[in-house]
Specification:
Number of helices: 18
Structural class: alpha/beta
Strand order of the largest sheet: 1-2-3-6-4-5
CATH architecture of the largest domain: Alpha-Beta Complex
CATH superfamily of the largest domain: Aminoglycoside phosphotransferase (APH), C-terminal lobe
Strand content: 5-15%
CATH class of the largest domain: Alpha Beta
Largest sheet: 6 strands, antiparallel
Number of strands: 15
Helix content: 40-55%
Length: about 525
């Protein structure tokens, strides 16, 4: 995909002049409309509304060259984006010219353009803006992952003929486009590095091709968003909202659901927020279902490579030197991320145990992004699994019956089954539970051995006073443990720990993390 040329196929000047005048709106906005032109659209911000028309352009990948095509794609944009943002996409207005030549909204004359009316929102509520000012929170990212998962689950599955962007052939087309762009830009993409990257990607593509095609057969090819980076997610009425999904080319939007997710994860990674990328990753797979994970490194790398080439194309069109340099810097970071994400990785299984309040989940969250492959280990937390078993959100307390021994045994079985599935798919796993029974610890080690991956077990050693203080300070946590529960656990003890390493976790979280990293041989 290239955005370098911009040749208009039809004269839209009359429509643009009309939309630029405040008096043509009802009610008129307090200020003159702000005009934003992109490669594919003209947007006018007027009061609390945004008005968008397709730009009369024709590219191989996006053709708005005739009025009929602009009408059809405006309707498609409305219908598709109402799946995720019905409160944002309000409707379509006809821009008409009467017999006297006067232009109006929804007049009696012939239509000269079709205008998508949208609710306007504060640009500071875009997730990319929030990332720039450090305003993204774990809670927001987890809610966003929930939204993406729900959207993917609700979307209708497509057959191979209707999903040209899915399967091995669909991904191969994108990958080869990337390589062609890298070859055409040797000043920005070192030919030797690009060649090594291309060889590795082609190898992984051939290895995963059967699974890529099987996922189409299994219903994971859908009309997704297609462009799911942070700039296309905003906070509306306090909730993350996906908008501006691709309607103009099925190659870009009728894709594998995990390829759709990969752009979101890749964007967070490239912005240096691997912690949030890992949170989103774990949250998206809240209920397991890891069959497609062997494809994820290739999906992530391809998304990062796409971003690298787009940033170069955008930089070439910039007259402002600082902006141009920033885009080139982003391209370099994206290309390096693409290379890292496709490298071979050896998964590991980590068990974290300790009484309630010892800091197990804090250590797991801090450690997970550091394990390979990108975006890190899947964090399996017994407290969250228990809540999902009972159909409850993580923060909702459960009755005492939910903690019977038979229920706890089921929770551990599910945790171990998911751990094995993730390990076999090539991803590291962190098992976060009390793990005070020797048989539970032995079962974890057995799963790792069966999957032929290394195992490291950590027991967090903390005084009862510190654990009690931490429990008292919890809010909105998945754990229902009280101080009394913790003291009963401590009274029972943990038995012989065997190969599990004790970590002093009574101090700052950073100290416990450094100890765990040291035992794992991480830098």
């Amino acid at each position: 995909m290239s955005y370098r040329t911009m040749e208009e196929t039809e004269d839209q000047s009359a429509a643009l002049e009309f939309l630029a005048r405040a008096e043509n709106y009802d009610p008129p906005p307090p200020e003159a409309p702000t005009h934003i032109a992109t490669h594919g659209s003209h947007v006018f911000l007027a009061g609390d509304r945004a008005y968008k028309i397709k730009r009369a352009v024709s590219f191989p990948y996006m053709d708005y060259g005739t009025l009929e095509r602009r009408k059809a794609f405006t309707r498609a944009e409305l219908d598709l984006n109402r799946r995720t943002a019905p409160e944002l996409y309000l409707g379509i207005l006809r821009l008409t010219r009467g017999p006297d030549g006067k232009i109006d909204f929804n007049g009696a004359g012939e239509a000269i353009e079709y205008v998508l009316e949208m609710r306007r929102f504060d640009q500071d509520d875009l997730l990319d803006r929030m990332a720039e000012r450090g305003a993204l929170t774990p809670a927001l990212i987890e809610r966003t992952a929930d939204r993406i998962r729900s959207f993917h689950n609700a979307a209708d599955s497509l057959n191979a003929g209707d999903a040209p962007g899915a399967g091995a052939a669909g991904l191969r087309w994108v990958i080869e486009e990337n390589f062609a762009e890298f070859a055409a830009q040797p000043r920005h993409f070192d030919p030797d590095e690009a060649a090594l990257y291309a060889a590795r990607v082609r190898t992984v593509l051939e290895q995963t091709a059967p699974l890529l095609d099987a996922r189409v057969t299994d219903g994971q090819a859908k009309h997704c968003h297609g462009d799911l980076h942070l700039r296309n997610i905003c906070v509306i009425d306090g909730e993350p909202t996906l908008f501006d999904g691709i309607e103009f080319n099925p190659r870009f939007a009728c894709i594998d659901t995990l390829y759709d997710l990969a752009y979101f994860l890749s964007d967070l990674e490239i912005r240096g927020r691997s912690d949030l990328a890992n949170l989103a990753f774990t949250r998206y797979f809240l209920d397991g279902g890891y069959d497609g994970l062997p494809c994820l490194p290739l999906f992530l790398s391809t998304r990062s490579a796409v971003r690298a080439k787009i940033m170069v194309s955008g930089a070439e069109a910039q007259d402002v030197l600082p902006t141009r340099q920033d885009m080139l810097d982003q391209s370099r970071r994206s290309f390096q991320a693409a290379r890292q994400q496709i490298e071979p990785a050896e998964p590991v299984m980590v068990g974290i145990g300790g009484f309630s309040g010892s800091g197990k989940s804090t250590l797991a969250r801090n450690l997970a992004p550091l394990l390979s492959p990108v975006p890190g280990a899947i964090h399996l937390r017994s407290d969250v699994i228990r809540k999902r078993l009972h159909g409850c959100p993580p923060s909702q307390p459960l009755p005492a019956a939910a903690y019977r021994q038979d229920v706890s045994a089921r929770v551990y079985r599910i945790m171990l089954e998911r751990a094995g599935d993730a390990l076999r798919a090539g991803y590291s796993v962190i098992l976060d539970a009390v793990n005070d029974r020797s048989e539970d610890r032995q079962a974890m080690m057995a799963v790792a051995k069966a999957c032929s991956v290394p195992f490291k077990g950590f027991w967090l050693d903390v005084s009862e006073e510190v654990m009690a203080r931490r429990i008292a300070g919890r809010t909105g946590d998945a754990s229902d443990a009280t101080e009394a529960v913790m003291r009963n656990q401590s009274k029972r003890g943990h038995g012989a720990l065997g190969d599990w390493k004790k970590i002093d976790a009574g101090g700052p979280a950073e100290a416990a993390l450094e100890a765990a990293k040291s035992h794992l041989g991480l830098p």
